[in-house]
Design goal:
Shape: globular
Radius of gyration: 19 Å
Order of helices and strands: HEHEHEHEEEEHEHEHEEHHEHHH
Number of helices: 12
CATH topology of the largest domain: D-Maltodextrin-Binding Protein, domain 2
Strand content: 15-25%
Distance between the termini: 34 Å
Largest sheet: 7 strands, mixed
Length: 331
């Protein structure tokens, strides 16, 4: 199936108006177009059957967190499988930022996609995303760690050595690239915004390349992205030193729109659970061989807890701040 990039501007232009549901008994952190009457933290399906969508073409995207072309190539076998299994056409398109991917789902222009851990929480609350699967194998979900990397030739051995240094964070919504450092570093003797001013690089790949090139002294990054870059020969692990590791976090995962026709939503879910990664995907995802079912309340509890403790959150106000920051950075 052919992959065709779409401009983020076109996605935004296609945005559909969203209206609050009347009589919603509980919404939680969900934005006003959505309701969570059953209390599972996710947007309920439309109550009016006429509002279900049953597209002939399923649009797939991902929130950018490492090289978009390499990630698209890695995911293409699954995208092709989803098209063949559902009997629908598939179009894979690239976006330039995390907020562009979330806006695409909110606007009804994205039906299924891959999100990083932090972006998934924003997509749930702001765009009505329904988590669909996380990477794993027969033993269970595959976690990832926050690693803090420095150049091997540098003198830095401990987080406290980074006071006053050039430390790259990725993006405001990133769990390992921003939220977790803000929540976890203080106990190690390093407080972001007090002991150093984070420099937002935009994505993990930029942070990693910046450290390797000496543009940054250090960076908190998702370890699996570094491993994929090293496997492709983009960076050499021998050139870097890991000075701190976190406990495992849930990996980023798949999500789908909350308002897909029930039969199509079930088919997408069944097709996803039946898929087994081919060798290239297993290698690219460090041994994961399947998508496992998601319990968002349980599986994302640590991510939500880290966000709360960092003072950031995943509500609409926090999302608007991130979006404004990304737009300012592009100017």
């Amino acid at each position: 199936m052919m992959a065709r990039p779409l401009a983020a501007a076109a996605l935004a232009a296609a945005a559909l108006p969203a209206f609050p549901q009347d009589g919603c008994p509980h919404r939680g952190e969900l934005d006003t177009p959505y309701c969570d009457a059953d209390g599972d933290l996710l947007a309920d399906p439309p109550r009016d059957p006429a509002k279900f969508r049953n597209p002939g073409t399923i649009f797939f995207t991902n929130s950018p967190h490492d090289d978009p072309a390499a990630y698209r190539k890695l995911m293409q076998p699954f995208v092709d499988h989803l098209g063949a299994c559902t009997g629908r056409r598939m179009r894979y398109f690239d976006v330039h930022s995390s907020t562009a991917a979330i806006e695409a789902m909110r606007a009804g222009r994205m039906h299924v996609g891959s999100m990083s851990s932090g972006d998934m929480a924003f997509a749930v609350n702001v765009a009505g995303a329904k988590p669909l699967g996380i990477r794993g194998d027969a033993a269970g979900p595959q976690g990832y760690q926050l690693w803090v990397i420095v150049r091997k030739a540098s003198p830095f051995r401990d987080l406290r050595d980074l006071k006053g240094k050039r430390v790259a964070h990725t993006a405001p919504s990133s769990n390992s690239g921003n939220l977790a450092p803000r929540a976890l570093f203080a106990a190690e003797g390093l407080v972001p915004d007090r002991d150093y001013k984070p420099i937002f690089s935009g994505k993990h790949e930029n942070s990693i390349l910046g450290v390797a090139a000496g543009d940054y002294d250090a960076a908190p990054i998702a370890h699996d992205i570094l491993v994929r870059m090293a496997d492709r020969g983009v960076v050499k692990m021998d050139d870097l030193r890991i000075i701190w590791k976190s406990a495992p976090f849930p990996p980023g995962g798949l999500s789908m729109a909350h308002d897909l026709a029930p039969a199509l939503a079930r088919k997408i879910r069944d097709c996803t659970q039946a898929f087994r990664f081919p060798p290239g995907m297993r290698e690219g995802f460090q041994g994961a061989d399947r998508w496992l079912p998601v319990d968002y309340r349980k599986d994302w509890e640590l991510v939500r807890k880290v966000a709360r403790e960092s003072g950031q959150g995943f509500d609409r106000a926090a999302y608007d701040r991130q979006k404004a920051g990304e737009e300012k950075a592009r100017k």
